[in-house]
Amino acid sequence: MRVRTSVWAALLGGLFAAGCDGDTPTVRGRVTAHGKPVVWGSVTLVDARGGYHQALLDLDGNYEIDGVPTGAVKVGVVSDNPAGRVAGRGVVHPRAAGQAAVQDPREALGFRQDTGSGPPKPPPGAWFPIPERYGDPHSSGLTGEVKSGRASELNIVLR
User: Fold this and answer.
1) CA dist 141 to 49, 76, 133, Å?
2) Non-local CB neighbours of 28 within 8 Å, separated by 6+ positions
3) 121: which DSSP letter?
4) Rounded Cα–Cα distance for residues 67 and 87 (Å)
5) Tens digit of pLDDT per residue, the chain (159 long)?
6) Which of 88, 111, 85 is nearest to 99 (CA)?
């Protein structure tokens, strides 16, 4: 019985190590545009295997994502209007009179605008729209490199 358990443990450990390659640091960074922090929205990283990794931005433009494999990543940044009005491809709150509902990207991360969960909204005047082209990691033109170690810094500068 012990031999069988040891064999299974070795096989599962080998499969896990082969599938994850063991180096998945925490990625931290700050998103800025024109020298100012992007105070609302989310960051999406797409790793070389096609895996998606997302995090919300805080009021200083910071984000943190655990478990991103090392190597090149494609980057996307979405910053829809926190007031719920359309700005670019912004969010339309489902309760907005006479407006169709648009999917809020934060809902994919488990936060709903109408329940009050998630980060606090930025103060008036702090949010500003960013170009829509940055929203899709595959076509944004934004890339980065996740380095090995416990933490990797990846600051994102939008122009």
Assistant:
1) 18, 9, 9
2) 62, 63, 64, 65, 151, 152, 153, 154
3) P
4) 32
5) 444 434 334 433 433 333 445 688 999 999 999 999 999 999 999 999 999 999 999 999 999 999 999 999 999 999 999 987 544 443 333 333 344 444 445 555 565 545 556 678 999 999 999 999 999 999 999 999 999 999 999 999 999
6) 85
